[in-house]
Write a structure and sequence with these properties.
By secondary structure, the chain is of the alpha+beta class. It has two helices and six strands, in the order E-H-E-E-E-H-E-E. The chain has a six-stranded mixed β-sheet with strand order 1-2-3-6-5-4, covered by helices on one side.
């Protein structure tokens, strides 16, 4: 409620992925990070786009924000647990996906300081 005027969420979900299950709390830590860390202008706020679509046999989930971005370089490695940028949520989601589906699935992060962050989550499209 406190971010009503600062937070705009847009959904781009392909119909074909709607019935597909995902691991519980997969998106939550990433959306929460957008809210807690990406808002840099208290007047403009941020846009968050949540996408879900098929790419070959897989499903890609993307959380994209136009917030402040991260200072970790262009292709961000996932923060280690305890890293001040993420807490445990990001690493935990990646580990749970890899345990369930294998190392070819999981989380990648791309961020540019001043431009925003894109988190991509790859899962099998069963």
């Amino acid at each position: 409620m406190r971010f009503t005027d600062l937070l705009r969420v847009h959904y781009q979900i392909e119909e074909s992925v709607l019935p597909c299950p995902i691991v519980k709390l997969t998106l939550q830590p990433f959306v929460e990070n957008c809210i807690n860390h990406a808002i840099w202008d208290d007047k403009l706020g941020i846009n968050i786009i949540i996408k879900a679509y098929r790419e070959g046999p897989d499903i890609l989930l993307k959380i994209i924000d136009d917030g402040m971005g991260m200072r970790r370089g262009n292709d961000c490695e996932l923060p280690e647990s305890g890293d001040t940028l993420s807490g445990y949520g990001i690493r935990n989601v990646d580990n749970r996906i890899k345990l369930l589906y294998g190392d070819s699935y999981g989380v990648t992060v791309y961020s540019r300081l001043g431009i925003g962050t894109t988190v991509t989550i790859r899962i099998p499209g069963r």
